[in-house]
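Myb/SANT-like domain-containing protein, pasting as requested.
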Amino acid sequence: MESLFLEILAEEAQKGNKPSNTFRAVSIKRVATTISERFQVQCDAKHVENHLRTVKNTWKTICTIREESELGWDDNMKMITCDRVTYDAAVTIHPKYAPFLNKKIEFYDEMALVIGQDMATGSFAKTFADIDLDNAAECSLPLNFDNEDVAEERTKVSSSGTSKRKRKNLQESVDDDHIQFVGEKLGEIAEALKKFTEDKTPHLYEEVMSMEKEGFDDDFLCGAFDFLAKNEFEAKAFLAKKTKHRKIWLQKFTQG
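Structure tokens follow.
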């Protein structure tokens, strides 16, 4: 399901349906409709937008890691590389780096198309909205500025030195607001994933292990369950499939 999600959005980006850093409504609707029909699950625009924010956060982490001077990059494998000593030091300081070190980054090219151009190097400044601070005097300012602040900014924008300082302060305020917004949304996603794990994991385990009667090895099925338990989209898709389609998925998992 994750691959389908990113493939569709990558196609939409190539078609020009992402004029800034947000997709057109028709693109979001296409993803929701396709996923709903393909996997027989309920998926609407809000689900797509929420998951897109998760993907953006993942991409931000990848970009941050790649900026570390001690780490290498294998473009053929789409893998951030390092030796054992560097790996141990990095994950000790930044545990969230672990899933991205010395492992192929799945769907890297698709994420680069869908998210990559949104991210300024070393910054998360324009992830969810394009804000043209150079035109601050001609449009209403973002966030909750009072009238005096607006008037002051419009007056001072003509002065290059003061304007630059003001724009910097405004940008920092915008960044803080976006970071707070991201934090709130990630909290909602984390809570939803926690609920999914609590409610569905025992059922998922039973369903995966029931495929033993179809000729699959017990240890192999345990490995498949571990993978699905960590991938919500894939787990939901697996549970939605009929037995013969689950067999096909497991056979592909064996080859992968």
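Note for the archive: The two ends are 16 Å apart (CA to CA).
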